[in-house]
Amino acid sequence: MSTATATATSAAAYQKCMMPACGATYDVGEVHTSCPACGALLDITYDWDRLPTPTSLRDFERKWSRRNEPLERSGVWRFRELLPFAPDEKIVSIGEGQTPLHPSVGVAAYVGMNPGRMLLQYEGMNPSGSFKDNGMTAAFTHAHMIGAQRAACASTGNTSASLALYCGMSRLMQAVIFIGSGKISYGKLSQALDYGALTMQITGDFDDAMQRVREVSKRLGIYLVNSVNPFRLEGQKTIMLRVLESLNWQMPDWICVPGGNLGNSSSFGKAFHELHKLGLIDRMPRIAIINAAGADTLYELYEKRGLRWNDGAPDTKIIDGYYAELDAASERADTIASAIEINRPVNLMKCLRALQCTGGVVREVTDQQILDAKSQVAANGLGCEPASAASVAGAKMLREEGVIDPDEQVVCVLTGHQLKDPTATVAYHSSDQNEFNRVLGSRGVNTATYANRAVQVENDLDAIVRAIQLNS
Ligand SMILES: *Cc1c(COP(=O)(O)O)cnc(C)c1O
Ligand SMILES: [Zn+2]
């Protein structure tokens, strides 16, 4: 790409405060995790008139014959005309986003959908095993654009695994990750350590780690890649582009996604809003965001207390009041789905905007429902971690309520790979009641509804043969 084009690109993309009342703009070359003028989140915004935008989503099919080129192979960057903030030569890609959309007859039956109407977008297939790579490649690219030497995040695990992988593979930056002292799954922690990230384990939970990493990054000038980073959300938009691509550019009726820090749901809303503005789609899907019952801030605020985006003038007293109640009760998020164990979702405002724009709904599901759904996803051949299965458990709930019709088309996003968190899975299937209780009992999980228990048998040929005949 020529220098002239690069300049034009950077000028047509800028950062903009998301709150209509402020609307301050900043160059993409600046680094902010919130609006310097008012403290709200920033969006990456484009002057589409000045950019070469596709006239039809089918234009992207041209790229399929060029999959030997790294940027066309990437499931994120082959859509870069729709996230045009970086010159090609600065893009750092490791082949993220090669993720499939699978129809599942078995999961459809479990959820109560007609055959063929339930599809699973398997983001566990990403290089670090979660959807986070979609966003990390974009944030990392921005960090590289502005010459960062170190990049940091607080993480329930997958963001740090992803950052550590990009740092290790590109050798462009050092990763500094903050984790809480409590729950982080070994699958994720092992990735960060193995990829060589500087790992800071602080006393406290995710919300504490998040608070600290913001302070530390500011003081030391470290580039922050948490989902307050607006560039990450640009990369995550492409998850929906791939869904549409797999559906031959037809819009599904529903997108179900787990809600943690609400980056995914926010980016999906932004993607659909932009596609609609560009005339590339003619209708929106509805987004269903699924909280875990033990970390249900969005559900509480949106469904119970009536908080709405309200065209950019949300009633923030509702939020302040709820957070004050959480503080007064010293209430901490608590769920087996550690990736969504978050009580103060940083992208709340953007998510409210996405809910308005897509006519979305929010539900909460228990850890029991999450683990049962997870086992049914796996029994149908796609392993996911507990948080991911919230999307399927939520779809089932919305089906039972009659909100989702059995003949609508539903896409559930499976956000992370099964091997991220084997502890919960093994406990669920364990025949050892003590092990089950130790890991799951304290979370109100009583029954391993779909347990597949190992058969205990003595080391004797005849006994083994008998046991197989008896059990198959
Ligand atoms: C980060 C994460 C989530 C939560 O996504 P948000 O965008 O923060 O709402 C859900 N599932 C998995 C596996 C994750 O890693
Ligand atoms: Zn502002």
From TrEMBL:
<dbReference type="GO" id="GO:0009088">
    <property type="term" value="P:threonine biosynthetic process"/>
</dbReference>
<protein>
    <recommendedName>
        <fullName>Threonine synthase</fullName>
        <ecNumber>4.2.3.1</ecNumber>
    </recommendedName>
</protein>
<feature type="domain" description="Tryptophan synthase beta chain-like PALP">
    <location>
        <begin position="93"/>
        <end position="416"/>
    </location>
</feature>
<dbReference type="Pfam" id="PF00291">
    <property type="entry name" value="PALP"/>
</dbReference>
<dbReference type="GO" id="GO:0006565">
    <property type="term" value="P:L-serine catabolic process"/>
</dbReference>
<dbReference type="GO" id="GO:0009097">
    <property type="term" value="P:isoleucine biosynthetic process"/>
</dbReference>
<dbReference type="GO" id="GO:0006567">
    <property type="term" value="P:L-threonine catabolic process"/>
</dbReference>
<keyword id="KW-0456">Lyase</keyword>
<dbReference type="InterPro" id="IPR036052">
    <property type="entry name" value="TrpB-like_PALP_sf"/>
</dbReference>
<keyword id="KW-0663">Pyridoxal phosphate</keyword>
<comment type="similarity">
    <text>Belongs to the threonine synthase family.</text>
</comment>
<dbReference type="InterPro" id="IPR004450">
    <property type="entry name" value="Thr_synthase-like"/>
</dbReference>
<feature type="modified residue" description="N6-(pyridoxal phosphate)lysine">
    <location>
        <position position="132"/>
    </location>
</feature>
<dbReference type="InterPro" id="IPR050147">
    <property type="entry name" value="Ser/Thr_Dehydratase"/>
</dbReference>
<dbReference type="GO" id="GO:0003941">
    <property type="term" value="F:L-serine ammonia-lyase activity"/>
</dbReference>
<dbReference type="GO" id="GO:0004795">
    <property type="term" value="F:threonine synthase activity"/>
</dbReference>
<dbReference type="GO" id="GO:0004794">
    <property type="term" value="F:threonine deaminase activity"/>
</dbReference>
<dbReference type="InterPro" id="IPR001926">
    <property type="entry name" value="TrpB-like_PALP"/>
</dbReference>
